[in-house]
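Notes from the 1:1 (GR / supervisor)

We went over the backlog. Supervisor wanted to see one worked example end to end before approving the batch request, so GR pasted a single chain during the call. The sequence is below; no edits were made to it. Supervisor asked that the structure be written out right there so they could see what the output format looks like.
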Amino acid sequence: MSKSVCEQLKLENQLCFPLYAASRLTTKIYAPYLKKLDITYPQYLVMLVLWQYNEMSVKDIGNQLFLESNTLTPLLKRLERKKLIIRSRSIDDERTVIINLTKSGLKLESQAQTIPQQIENSFTVDGFEKEELIVFRDNLVKLLNILNKQKK
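Structure output shown during the call:
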C-alpha cells in the first residue's frame, strides 16, 4: 500500500537528488580515463588546478575546489607518493604549504588532454548539444558560488 507523501518531500521534487546522482554518475564516466593515468577523480581535480596555475598554496587549491584542508591534505599526500607533486613550506610564511608539479606531474597533463573532449562526447551522444552543456555548466558554477556564499 502506498503512503501519502507531502509533494515537497517526494524524491522527484528535490533539487539535491539529481545533483547528487548526476555527480556520482559523471564521476563514474571519468573512471576508465583516470584509471589509465592512475589517479582518482578528486586527484584529477587537484591536477587540473595545478596544470592551470602550476604553483599554489594548499589554501588556494582548497578555495578553487571548494575543499577544506583536512580533505585536501590526504589527496595531496597520495599525489606526492605518486611523485606527481612536491609539497614544501613557503619561504615567506612557513605555515603555508606550497604545491608544485614534478616532471611526472607535468608529463601527465599531455596524457590527460583528450579527457575533456571524450567526456563532452559522452554527453552529446545522447542528447545534449554543446551549447546546452556550456549553459548548464555556467548555471552549475552560478549555483556553486551561491552555495559557497551561504556556507560562510
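Supervisor's comment: The chain has seven helices and three strands.
Batch request approved.
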